[in-house]
Amino acid sequence: MSALLEIKDVVKHFPAQRDMFGRAKTFVRAVDHVSFSVDRGETLALVGESGCGKSTLSRLILRLIDPDFGQISFEGRDVLALDARSLRAFRREVQIVFQDPYASLNPRMTVRQILAEPLNLHGLGKPGDRQKRVEELLSLVGLPARFADRFPHEFSGGQRQRVAIARALAVEPKLIVCDEPVSALDVSIRSQVLNLLRDLQDRLGLTYIFVSHDLAVVKHIADRVAVMNLGQIVEIADSQSLFKMPFHPYTRALLSAVPIPDPAARRPPLLTSGEIPSALNPPSGCRFHTRCPFAIDKCRTDPPALMPAADGHFAACHRMLELPPPEAIASRDSGFSPVVERLLAAFSQRTEDRSIQGVDKAGAGF
Ligand SMILES: Nc1ncnc2c1ncn2[C@@H]1O[C@H](COP(=O)(O)OP(=O)(O)OP(=O)(O)O)[C@@H](O)[C@H]1O
Ligand code: SF4
Ligand SMILES: [Mg+2]
Predict the structure, then answer these.
(1) Average pLDDT over every residue of 10-21
(2) Ligand 1 and 213: CB distance under 6 A
(3) Which of 43, 239, 254, 365 is least surrounded, with the fewest CB atoms within 10 Å of its CB?
(4) pTM value?
(5) Can you tell me the distance from the alpha carbon of 13 to that of 22, in angstroms, rounded to the nearest whole number?
(6) Across the strands, what pairs with 333?
(7) CA-304 nearest atom, ligand 2
(8) Listed residue (202, 193, 126, 189) closest to 166, CA to CA
(9) What pLDDT, on a 0 to 100 scale, did the predictor assign at position 96?
(10) Ligand lying nearest the CA atom of residue 24
């Protein structure tokens, strides 16, 4: 596979406070020296707590905002150097699906108008064929053609998200950034929308960047996972490797925070207590040191770089190779690994039960 998207050393700081002359005094370091690539046809998940910079990174990738520093290339082209015409073409190739489909769909437009709009804007197909294309798009996302003349408020949350996905697909993109696309949906509907995304990926050869704070969802959909903390990637690996052997203490803490229905199986999160630092004033050295139970003096002064931890698996921690394996922490902390595994296995089982074919036939079964 060749890289579709490459991000190199990208930085985005937002002014937070200004002095009396309007000059920025302090900055939020939303994205701070981030590098990664995404291969064609894969799903890369971006995970991390609220405010760690996931959406900022998404907006940078779509070139909705420009970075302060760094390079972004798509199919080998420098995205930051595109002229107006090439930028228009790029905007066709890269689309976004947001968390809240109600906010992202114009309430005064019918679904037909919503789906026809990008076709008209980009001059796709003959005008006479566009209505047919609208119906094709609805069918692609498992909605019947008769829904075309309804307004967004006439749909359920899951149906609205299907319309948002259809709108993204209208321009035949290569990459779709999905920013928390199922977080606002009922748990029972999440798996249907995830299955739809996976099915569309297989059928259309799509590449996804999937932003989420929900590791159970990520395990279900991602080929690779990048874990972010305070504007930086602290671990990146293929999904199997990351869930089996997380090296970074922050990733382990995120995994330990996956909710477990059985109260008897609950255990303390793998974090020291104290205030959660912010991207406005991140800690020196390793940005995780104020919360890390394994921190040593070096962690307070020296920022760790992303280094190979295993084959295709990178983590940014001075102590990653000397820490006890997750299983050892598990037995100390009342069965972390097996419990999480059971939870994730149960989730996968539930989602596999709802086959996409069933959803397609039901059309709008939720
Ligand atoms: N336009 C902006 N101006 C100033 N600060 C901003 C702006 N956009 C984002 N930020 C700040 O940048 C940081 C990262 O925000 P971002 O929205 O990227 O986080 P996130 O990981 O998507 O969080 P969430 O999970 O809550 O959506 C936050 O501290 C946020 O307050
Ligand atoms: S570098 Fe130090 S503080 Fe940071 S995650 Fe590793 S052990 Fe913890
Ligand atoms: Mg966000």
Answers:
(1) 91
(2) yes
(3) 365
(4) 0.86
(5) 16
(6) none
(7) 1
(8) 193
(9) 94
(10) 1
Token couple for 86: 């090439």
CATH code at 3-222: 3.40.50.300
209, 58 Cβ separation under 8 angstroms: yes
Whether 256 is in the pocket of ligand 1, judged by its Cβ within 6 Å, is no
Ligand 1 lined by 28 (C-beta under 6 Å): yes
- Average the pLDDT over each of 141-150, 157-166, 231-240, 262-271 and give the range with the smallest value: 262-271
Q: Residue 290: helix, strand or coil by DSSP?
A: coil
pLDDT of 364 higher than 70: no
d(CA 66, CA 71): 10
Beta bridge partners of 24: 18
Question: Which range has the top average pLDDT, 13-22, 100-109, 113-122?
Answer: 113-122
Q: Which residue do the tokens 């199919």 mark?
A: 75
Q: Decide whether any atom of ligand 1 lies within 6 Å of the 26 Cβ.
A: no
Domain extent listing, the chain:
3-222, 232-315, 338-366
280-310 pLDDT, tens digit per residue, is 889 999 999 999 989 999 999 999 999 999 9
pLDDT digits (tens, 9 = 90+) for 221-261: 999 999 999 999 999 999 999 999 999 999 998 887 665 45
Distance CA 260, CA 361 (A): 33
Q: Would you say the CB of residue 55 lies under 6 angstroms from ligand 1?
A: yes
Ligand 1 pocket check for 14: Cβ under 6 Å: yes
d(CA 168, CA 240): 29
Q: What is the pLDDT of residues 69-114, one digit of tens each?
A: 999 999 999 999 999 999 999 999 999 999 887 788 999 999 999 9
* CB 325 within 8 Å of CB 247: no
CA distances from 50 to 46, 228, 231 (A): 12, 10, 11
Query: What separation in Å is there between the alpha carbon of 296 and the centre of ligand 1?
Result: 29
CA dihedral 258, 262, 264, 269 (to 10 degrees): 10
Q: What is the DSSP string of 224-249?
A: EEEEEETTEEEEEEEHHHHHH---SH
CA of residue 46 to ligand 3 center, whole Å: 10
